[in-house]
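Q: I'm building a small set of examples for a reading group on sequence design. Run inverse folding on the following structure and report the sequence directly after it, with nothing in between.
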């Protein structure tokens, strides 16, 4: 399962979602892809040290969204493809607090249907270009919670710094910190360090492109 990032990304790894204001004019389709040196999830590698190709397509309308995200992977159990289907709703209060409520279900090409997570994500700007975020995810089938806190800081019009720390069921802690660089409105690069309580630290480099395919 991928690491879902609160707010502006809707759990799409390096792939971004449209601004909330853009969703008020009707259904809008966004799609994109990412090439990453390693598929990292909660501090662990899901690609056994190998590169991964990821992609997504999402529809946004009046705060509601639905879509699919996929990635190549190598879990050592015969699975080499993951597909996540997500439904959700996100909006913002007048005082600036953004919220995202939804459910994601995970599928693998060899082992099949896996599990799902309901999630609540919050984000709040604390100063110009800086916001704090938090998320709680719950797997009802396994009765497992996963909570994390993070920050996003826009350093200038191209560079941004972000980080996350979290814990799953009080037995697995994880974190990441990294910097991203926007080449233009479509293309960005990401350099990130990941670590977990049961896994050695790893650095992953990513390249992504995100496209607004228009409204219908």
């Amino acid at each position: 399962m991928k690491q879902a990032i609160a707010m502006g990304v809707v759990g799409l790894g390096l792939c971004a979602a449209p601004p909330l204001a853009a969703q008020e004019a009707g259904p809008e389709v966004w799609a994109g892809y990412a090439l990453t040196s390693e598929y990292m999830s909660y501090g662990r590698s899901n690609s056994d040290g190998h590169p991964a190709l990821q992609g997504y397509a999402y529809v946004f309308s009046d705060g509601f969204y639905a879509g699919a995200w996929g990635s190549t992977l190598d879990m050592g159990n015969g699975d080499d493809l993951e597909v996540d289907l997500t439904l959700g709703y996100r909006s913002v209060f007048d005082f600036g607090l953004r919220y995202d409520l939804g459910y994601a279900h995970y599928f693998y090409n060899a082992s099949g249907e896996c599990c799902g997570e309901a999630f609540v994500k919050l984000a709040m700007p604390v100063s110009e270009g800086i916001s704090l975020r938090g998320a709680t995810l719950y797997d009802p089938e396994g009765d497992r919670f996963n909570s994390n806190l993070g920050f996003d800081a826009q350093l200038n019009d191209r560079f941004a710094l972000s980080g996350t720390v979290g814990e799953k069921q009080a037995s697995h802690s994880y974190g990441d910190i990294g910097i991203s660089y926007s080449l233009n409105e479509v293309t960005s690069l990401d350099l990130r360090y990941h670590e977990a309580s049961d896994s050695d630290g790893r650095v992953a480099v990513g390249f992504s492109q995100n496209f607004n395919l228009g409204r219908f």
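The chain has one domain: 20-215.
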